[in-house]
């Protein structure tokens, strides 16, 4: 007995109508003999059993029982492979990404400094080819993997050093989209949000930090009190404005000196500086001025000694 079967197949690319010829009875091509649905060719094939043929190059078959395969979008290719079973096997050219819902290759989003669309990759092969993409292998770019249901589009990380490799890996302590979040037990430097995640200090370091803050506040209040009393006593003793005016600027310079010293020491201890963020991005070529600034903040003992010596000299001259 021979019959005709009509089926509606749904896929991400749309709805397809398949027509199949059914043979019942003792035929070797019957469903009973095959133990399955032998009346339809599999996805990635076209034709009718037993003459099922794989979809040719640059074509794909998203459903069973297709009489012919569908062409990849313009600017796309299957990279020489046959038997593609989904549009995800179609690779758009460099500068384009696959929009599977519209079955088209769309232009890569702008600006180019934030988004990158490599050619020769698909949602099916990105996990195996991402390590060989030279443009993103040095880090600074992120992509969500697996990319089965997402466009193959790289996005630049806000903290370039947080993203390493070309397969969506994050630097230690980082996680989430664009590696923008810190894992448990890690946090960002409170001086700036554009920095790497660092391990949270232990209880002893926190206690020392809080104690140093309270001590610094006490010293500041004492200096303010001392300066006020000195000015009042000077007026009572009949000192001239010129003599009194030499002491207050010296105290202001001293407080600035101590503040910068404290901030510098804390930054160097946490190893979370702007210089590290710059140096982590291998694509950045620092100018002479930038190199000097990086040297100033990278925790260089020579720079710190020069700063202390210069500030101390100015302070002594002012007091004298």
Largest sheet composition: 3 strands, antiparallel
Low-confidence stretches: 22-36, 266-287, 296-303
Helix and strand content put the structural class at: alpha+beta
Task: Give the oligomer, counting copies of the same chain as homo and different chains as hetero.
Answer: single chain
Order of helices and strands: EEHEEEEEEEEEHHEEEEEEEEHHHHH
Radius of gyration: 34 Å
Strand percentage lies at 15-25%
Q: What are the key terms here?
A:
19 strands; two-stranded antiparallel sheet; rod-shaped; 320 residues; 3 domains; single chain; 8 helices; 3-stranded antiparallel beta sheet; alpha+beta
Describe the structure.
With 320 residues, the protein is an alpha+beta fold. The protein has three domains: 2-77, no CATH class; 87-199, no CATH class; 203-319, no CATH class. Helices cover 35% and strands 19% of the residues. The chain contains eight helices and 19 strands. The strands form nine sheets. The chain has a three-stranded antiparallel β-sheet, with no helix packed on it. Strands 1-2 form a two-stranded antiparallel ribbon. Helix 4 (203-237) packs antiparallel against helix 5, helix 5 runs antiparallel to helix 8 and helix 6 packs across helix 7 (288-297). The N and C termini lie far apart (115 Å).
């Amino acid at each position: 007995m021979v019959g005709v079967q009509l089926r509606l197949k749904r896929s991400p690319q749309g709805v397809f109508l398949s027509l199949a010829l059914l043979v019942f009875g003792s035929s070797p091509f019957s469903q009973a003999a095959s133990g399955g649905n032998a009346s339809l060719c599999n996805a990635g094939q076209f034709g009718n059993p037993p003459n099922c043929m794989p979809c040719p190059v640059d074509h794909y078959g998203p459903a069973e029982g297709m009489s012919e395969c569908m062409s990849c979008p313009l600017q796309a290719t299957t990279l020489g492979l046959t038997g593609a079973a989904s549009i995800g096997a179609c690779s758009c050219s460099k500068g384009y990404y696959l929009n599977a819902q519209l079955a088209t290759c769309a232009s890569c989003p702008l600006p180019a400094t934030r988004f990158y669309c490599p050619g020769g990759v698909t949602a099916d092969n990105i996990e195996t080819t991402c390590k060989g993409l030279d443009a993103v292998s040095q880090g600074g770019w992120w992509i969500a993997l697996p990319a089965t249901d997402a466009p193959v589009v790289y996005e630049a990380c806000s903290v370039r050093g947080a993203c390493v490799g070309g397969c969506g890996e994050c630097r230690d302590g980082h996680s989430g989209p664009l590696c923008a979040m810190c894992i448990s037990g890690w946090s960002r430097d409170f001086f700036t949000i554009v920095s790497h995640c660092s391990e949270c200090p232990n209880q002893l370091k926190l206690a020392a930090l809080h104690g140093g803050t309270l001590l610094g506040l006490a010293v500041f209040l004492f200096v303010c009190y001392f300066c006020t009393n000195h000015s009042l006593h000077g007026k009572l003793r009949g000192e001239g404005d010129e003599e009194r005016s030499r002491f207050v600027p010296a105290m202001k310079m001293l407080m600035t000196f101590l503040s910068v010293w404290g901030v510098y020491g804390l930054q160097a201890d946490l190893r979370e500086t702007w210089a590290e963020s710059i140096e982590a991005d291998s694509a950045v070529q620092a100018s002479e001025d930038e190199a000097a600034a990086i040297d100033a903040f990278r925790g260089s003992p020579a720079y710190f000694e020069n700063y202390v010596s210069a500030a101390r000299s100015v302070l002594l001259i002012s007091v004298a």
